[in-house]
Amino acid sequence: MDWQLPSDSVPSAFVTEALSQTLRGTPPVTGAWRDGDHLGSRRFAQTGPLETETGENIAHVRIAYEMFGELNADRSNAVLVFHALTGDSHVTGPAGPGHPTGGWWSGIVGPGLAVDTERWAVIVPNIVGGCQGSTGPATVAPNGHEWGSRFPYLTIRDQIQPIRTLADELGIERFHAVIGGSMGGMHALEWALYSPEATARLGLIATTAVTSADQLGVNSVQLEAINIDPSFHGGDYYDEDEGPYRGLALARRMALLNYRSATELNERFERSWQGKRSPLGDHGRFAVESYLDFHGNKFTRRFDANSYLALVHAMNSHDVSRGRGSLHEVLASLTMPTIVVGIDSDRLFPLDQQQFLAAHITGLISADAQPAVVSSPFGHDGFLIESEPVGAEIRRLLEHDA
Questions:
Q1: Per the residue annotation, which of 12, 89, 134, 182 is the catalytic one?
Q2: 182 classed as catalytic
Q3: 352 tagged catalytic
Q4: Nearest of 95, 93, 126 to residue 109 by alpha carbon
């Protein structure tokens, strides 16, 4: 759960009145990528039917993905990267047609960077249930209408199944590394448990083995913010004149408070006013309020409310021990070389969750069974912003003998 875009994840800054004016007007009913929109760098794979853990079925699943770099002859240089909650396949590269924003990990993935695209072929799928080209609530179902409220409940385990088919289509038997941060780390963990033979190395960044009660509670109020928006219409809003942008923006504002650290927000904004009008009875606003409002409003222009619900529900399902045995035993079964990275100021995925992973994963690349800790004032979003220390750990993983 993180901002996912460099324009959003840079250090918190005051929102000028001129900047606020750029988001005037009602947002679209959905910010999802739709068929007929510019393809950008997307590629597509038809991965067939998906039967979910709850017994529901999606007859035909499409996965949108991007590839950065070229596969070598034996496909041994493939690196699989999973995005976080509101990310997509555009991990690196500039904004342009089909991609209104630049890549969300452009400081990590690219020529000469930690994940060097002149050496590695980096494959980044948009997870099923998302809204940037893969099958999700905003895509058209077999009956010719958007899935909307009919879209099945998905778990993290459900979401990795089509990626196995994508790998087969690309001729990849074993990924040199599988890496994910935040929700993407959940997918990376489940992938490694589901396909250990296809995972030579594993990178887990600012993530957890089990979604905690605290995280479930934080998620619940975001879900409710969308559900109670009068324009939500139970999830069937695509033919309406107005979508549930107020609820989606509010959910995003709630989330942002957990993506950043209290220290950063306090030091950046203090009790500053937005403009000249006082927030103490004169209908003015504090600067931090305007900051949250601006980024919530901005988010509605690139995301879909139903996808937000589907992805948060999937996060809530996350428990690698479910149906497998004790948590200790499940994590101990991961014997491939593994890094675990935590952010010291992370209050969404606190450091103790990475410490637990590190203490129990057999293949951890560490002499003291501890995660690599990145010191950052930026909270959870530090894994997006702190490119140098995070990149150094990923480079260490990629160079490690498997």
A1: 182
A2: yes
A3: no
A4: 93
What's the token pair of residue 277? 């009008």
Are 246 and 232 within 8 A, CB to CB?
A: no
Return the closest-CA partner of residue 339 out of 401, 399, 396, 389: 396
* Catalytic residue list contains 380: yes
CB-based contacts of 85, cutoff 8 Å, min separation 6: 1, 2, 4, 182, 183, 311, 312, 315
State whether residue 186 is helix, strand or coil. Answer: helix
3-state secondary structure of 299: helix
Residue pLDDT tens, the chain, 402 long: 333 343 444 445 555 555 555 556 789 999 999 999 999 999 999 999 999 999 999 999 999 999 999 999 999 999 999 999 999 999 999 989 999 788 999 999 999 999 999 999 999 999 999 999 999 999 999 999 999 999 999 999 999 999 999 999 999 999 999 999 999 999 999 999 999 999 999 999 999 999 999 999 999 999 999 999 999 999 999 999 999 999 999 999 988 888 887 777 777 776 776 767 777 776 777 777 778 887 788 899 999 999 999 999 999 999 999 999 999 999 999 999 999 999 999 999 999 999 999 999 999 999 899 999 999 999 999 999 999 999 999 999 999 997
Of the candidates 346, 360, 376, 381, the residue annotated as catalytic is 346
pTM score of the predicted model: 0.92
Catalytic residue (one of 89, 187, 380, 381): 380
